[in-house]
Amino acid sequence: MMLRLKAKALDFYTYPPIGGDDWRYGYAAARVRALQTQMIPKSTLVDMANAGTFEQAAESISTTEYIPVASKTLAELEQVLIAQRRSLREQFARLMIDNSIVKLFKTRDDFANMRLAVRRRVTDKAIGTDYSSQGNLNPEIFEEVFEQEKYELLGEHIQNAVEQAILAYYTDRDICRIDHIIDRAQAEYNIQTALKMKSEFLTGLFSIKIDLTNIITMLRLKFTESEKRKVFLPGGYIEIERLKQAVDTEYDSIGQLFYATPYYRIVSVGANYVGTEKSFLKAEQASENHLSGYLNTTSQITSGPQPVIAYLLQKEKEIRTVRLILTAKKNLLDKKMILDRIGE
Amino acid sequence: MAANVNATRMELLRLRKRVALASRGHRLLSDKRDEISRQLVQIAKLIQPLRKTVEQKLLETCRRFMLARASMEPEDNKSSLEIPTKKFSLAVKFSTIMNVTVPQLTKEMEGQIICYGFATTSGELDVALLSLEQAFDSLIELAEKEKQAYLLATELQMTRRRVNVLEHIVIPELKQSIRYIFDKLAEAERDNISRLMKITDIIRG
Q1: pLDDT in tens, A88-140
Q2: Minimal-distance CA residue of chain A relative to B124
Q3: Which of A116, B1, B72, B148 has the most CB atoms around it within 10 Å of its CB?
Q4: Substitution target from B59, B62, B69, B79 for chain A, most A beta carbons within 10 A
């Protein structure tokens, strides 16, 4: 792991390699290719953003798998989208032959649940059971785990993260430290598991995600004039020193620091937008586009887990985009703001 | 009122004193009314741009928050905002404007408004929360001014009623009673004189 974290030489131009074919995934890859044709095209999303009202925006996707949502409230809309995401994840679990990959993606919910549970634990609030049920851990055991401090029931990786997070909180009583420790543990766990599976694609995917998170974090630290520097995640392609240096650089010059990396455009466009518009819409949109670009390269794979994972992530992004546009339309937000966020 | 009044010289003197007092009160209350009006106009002039600023800032905060909320996963939304770290307390002092007790608000804030990690949250959430933090100063000033305006307006309405009552009811009625007593006393005087003249005529006859 340490070797992986120290090796920073980039041996690719824009996207890291995605690995080879795995012929066990012939059916899954073909199924995903068929499902990808049913995804909402970019032009429809732009039409939704340009629609005059919420009803018109909802009407644009009424022919897709999203049920007509024109008459629904935001809370009902949220439930529809959560149900959509749940069925997507179930479909992903059915299509994946390697259960370890399903488990790996389910840990996202475990770590999210832990952020909430640890916060409640250290602030002496009731642990409760209102957590995401789509993780590997059953939320009903959380009360027992935290009240009796039986952290071993959570599994080794989460146990370590929780113990470190609690310790970090009591060191300086800063609630943000819980999230930073759990974020770091999650990033390390993802990279470690991907390396253990010897999956070139997953290693590349998580490294890109870490880099993109670090870049946005760098812009956020600069925008909020925060003094925190230990919040960058390890395991990306970009050196953390470069990110720390970028925090203390002017917005106009930040892009130059990343000139030799695949993220030059994201950083320069994002930093300029933050500097002029005081908003992260462009930076977030550019980083999502970069990740989508990497996921799109899985189309070169005839058969393998890569297209299935790519479909899961692209579909989750689509659900978030639909939520974003409909929420924006329901609240009469500016069209330009939506288009800036979805990238048109 | 005139019908119930005792037409005596004592009552006449008492009513004259009351008219003088009511006139003095009327003059003082008129001055108070004018001053409160002036203060109210000044505060209203301050409130108008302040309210626009606050509404704009809060609208911006809501917009950013909506965008952040929509672009984040629901479970991340929940965990990031459930335990706030910013503590906010409001101290209220009182001062007087034209004998009206008005509040003066001062805020005390401690802790960071950003209470979450960066990996699973949107940057727009930072923008929304910082915008909300900045809006607090204007929001508290607006609350203070609006409360002052409300209290002054209530006092103005009450003072205006008092002035109107004195001007249109109390003083005219007192003057009417004085005139009535004066007339009654004058009539009694004339009656007395004529009676005396009649007695004189009888004695001389």
Answers
A1: 999 999 999 999 999 999 999 999 999 999 999 898 888 888 888 889 988 88
A2: A280
A3: A116
A4: B79
pLDDT in tens, B38-92: 999 999 999 999 999 999 989 888 888 888 888 888 888 888 888 888 888 889 9
Q: What is the mean pLDDT of residues B105-127?
A: 89
Interchain CB contact of B58 with A (< 8 Å): no
Burial of B68 from C-beta contacts in 10 A (0-12 / 13-18 / 19+): buried
Buried b / exposed e along A99-136 (16+ C-beta atoms within 10 A): eebbbbbbbbbbbbbbbbbbbbbbeeeebeeebbebbe
- Quote the pLDDT of residue B146: 94
CATH of B9-163, one of 3.30.450.40, 1.10.287.3240, 3.40.50.11930, 3.20.20.70: 1.10.287.3240
Which residues are bridge partners to B92 per DSSP?
B105
**Any CB–CB contact under 8 A between A318 and chain B?**
no
Distance from CA of B127 to the nearest CA of A (A): 7
Question: Touching check for B73 and chain A: CB below 8 Å?
Answer: yes
pTM for this predicted structure: 0.83
Do A182 and A165 touch, CB atoms closer than 8 A? yes
Q: Tell me the shortest Cα–Cα distance from A24 to chain B, in angstroms.
A: 32
Residue A73, pLDDT score: 76
**Does the structure's ipTM exceed the value 0.85?**
yes
Q: How far is CA A49 from CA A253, B73, B162, in A?
A: 32, 20, 60
Query: What percent of chain A has a predicted confidence (pLDDT) above 90?
Result: 55
Query: Which of B64, B78, B118 has its CB closest to that of A220?
Result: B118
Domain ranges of chain B: 9-163
